[in-house]
Design brief:
3 helices; globular; four-stranded antiparallel β-sheet
Length: about 130
Amino acid sequence: MASGQDGAALREAIRAALSRLRAEARSKLPETGTFAPLRVQAPAASQGEGAIEFTIGAAIADGKTADWERKRFLEVKTLSPSGKSESSSWVFFGRGPELLEALQSEEALLEKVLAAIQEGRQHLLRHELP
C-alpha cells in the first residue's frame, strides 16, 4: 500500500469519492426494493496503481424474505493499472439507514476501505491478467 505522500493522496481521493457517494445516497437510495447501483470512482493516487470504484447496490437473494428488500451493500473495487483485472469486496451490508450512518462515520469507514484496497491490491499482484 502507498505510504507517505502517496498514502495521503490515496486517503484524500477516497474521502472525496465517499463524500460524493454519500451525497448521491442521500438523494437516490430508496428504503426498499431494487435500484440502479450508485457508482463513484476515485482516480489512481500514484503511478502504477489502478483506480478505486465504490458501488452501493441492492442485495438480492433467491427465496428472499421481506427483510431482504431493505438490504444494501457498499462494494470497494480495486482496479489494476491496466484496467484488465479487478478485485472487490463488500465493506458494508445492511439496511439503507445503517448505510447512510456508516457513510457519515468517515474515519471508521475509511479504515475499512483502506484495508479492502490493500487486500485487493495484493490479490491483483498474484492474479492480474497481462
